[in-house]
Amino acid sequence: MENILFVCVENAGRSQMAEAFFRKYAPAKFNVISAGVTPSSQLNPIVVQVMKEVGIDMTQQSPKSLSNEMIETSSKTINMGCMDKESCPALFVKDVLDWNISDPKEKSIDDVRKIRDQILKEVLQLIESLEK
Fold first, then answer.
1. Dmax (CA) of the chain
2. What span, in angstroms and rounded, lies between the C-alpha atoms of 113 and 66?
3. Given this model, what pLDDT does residue 91 score?
4. Which of 19, 101, 109, 120 could form an SS bridge with 34, CB 3.0 to 4.6 Å?
5. Which residues form the Phosphotyrosine protein phosphatase I domain (predicted)?
6. Which 8-state DSSP code applies to residue 58?
7. pLDDT at 83 over 70
8. pLDDT higher than 90, residue 64
9. Rounded to two decimals, what is the model's pTM?
10. Ordered alpha helix ranges (H), 1-132
């Protein structure tokens, strides 16, 4: 099994969406997890709502803290984007793919839908590249 790790700052939106899409569309030979450098206490409720619109229930997911073990055991790590350099996950992880996706925090529902759709596109491309 290959481990895929999606990382962002709070693990409340982007990386959670990526984890959910990857879990839905990737073959069973992959394990997937998401984590944050400074995890939030809960998922962004608008993120949960826009994922429900595309048939994905995220109500059982919760933010997780990035650990050394996650980094060491992942075969591919994807950084969703940084709000600031001090908390950027890419500082803690080497050989990271950086998608540079906007943080859905405090964005309108329409903006969060655009972010969701961008993440879906990136995840599907990632799955395709991993299968080659």
1. 37
2. 26
3. 58
4. 19
5. 2-129
6. -
7. no
8. yes
9. 0.92
10. 14-25, 45-52, 68-73, 109-130
